Amino acid sequence: MAIAQTQNITTCRSNGGGSEVVLLDFWPSMFGMRVRIALAEKGIEYEYKEQDLANKSPLLLEMNPIHKKIPVLIHNGKPINESCIIVQYIDETWNDKSPLMPSDPYVRAQARFWADYVDKKVYETSKKIWTLKGEEQEKAKKEFIEILKVMEGQIGEKPYFMGESFGYADIALVTFYSWFYTFETLGNFSIEKECPKLIAWAKRCMQRESVSKTLPDSKKIYDFFIEMKTKLDL
Amino acid sequence: MHQLLNHCLIQISMAKKCEMKLLGSVGSPFVTRVKFALKLKSIDYEYIQEDLANKSELLLTSNPGLQKVPVLFHANKQPMSESLIIIEYLDEILPDVHPILPSNPSDRAQSRFLAYYIDTLYCPWMKEFMLTRESERKEELKRLIIEGSMMLEEAFVKLSKGKAFFGGDEIGFLDIVVGCFLGWIKFFGIIFGFNVIDETRNPRLAQWGKSLWSHEATRSVIPSDEIHMNFFKMLLGFLPPMPDMPIPA
Description:
The complex is a heterodimer of chains A (234) and B (249). With 234 residues, chain A is of the alpha+beta class.
């Protein structure tokens, strides 16, 4: 099915010193990508284990018995689930460099709000674009653009969501950028035309190695989606 | 010890000087959570009652697209919503006054995950159970809720480490996050004869419920049975009557 993506184990430079980090993931997942970006920002060595979601492994089922979903970060044998929770865990555990959360409690609360907003609004609405047709799809597209415009408004003239530094809220949304081409093609619209500043922000994030090396090529995502859709329709 | 006490007192007085307001509605467990956290942190605040059937200008303008309570207003900052985010914020502005989240990142992640489970699965199941008309679905929800309670029992045993609360000796994050539903849980028992937390199935959790309920901080924040009853009646008012649904007195 999907093109399996293996990752070379990079040299550990963290203060973990001998700690074992394993990531259970699925390469096109925008949620999995968030964790990969966070790990890269911190320079953490880890073992990447590609999961077959149609045929879930005993390890995945053991590590996430409630939701049975990826990503799962396993650190010294203990599982951590839910991408946003994992990113915060990474930031708090490897706290010697590259802080991902703002330092001020109020700004931190705002960052958490926006990441939560992405989960509640962006993902659910984007799903409608690729599952619905006709008038319903048009409605979904409109809703999706409105949501993106709200986020674009939040970024405003700042380089990143919360200001000068790339962080948690940026990580939450930027992974969807790899899926924009798919949404645009299916919905026959241009996100850049509607939200140019948002695309400018995404491209700015892509200048960071952690982001550009993590996000798969947009066309690859689209091919994966078509393949998945074809398989499911049969 | 004396220095720490001084530090706490300074933090409390700073919080008191800054104006804190909470926009909430009757019966909402999510509002109860924030009240709980404010109580534990000894923060004075003004409570503004919202009528969700008739949303105020304040609510409509302060919560982009979501229009839900609770909303926290702190001094001249932009309003904050989402109970879990608000609790973490309150914990971080007064870190030395009754710490709410655990200090260890692994325990913090575990606590946040369980809170996420409560809000995305366990609580919606309870709400749907209250309101669904289909008996088959009701049975399925009952099964899911029972499984959820067993999972929470296991989590409690692990996190409490033999102490009275999820947070150990003191009330912590999960005590607030789960505890805000104690009123509803009691209510389920009375109306539906369904013990969400059952003494036989979940003995440790049942004991925890009793400990939390009798804590002086809890009594001041959890709404009365009458309020829960009125809230439920209001919800039922939106549905046509069902033959097997007991009508609350």
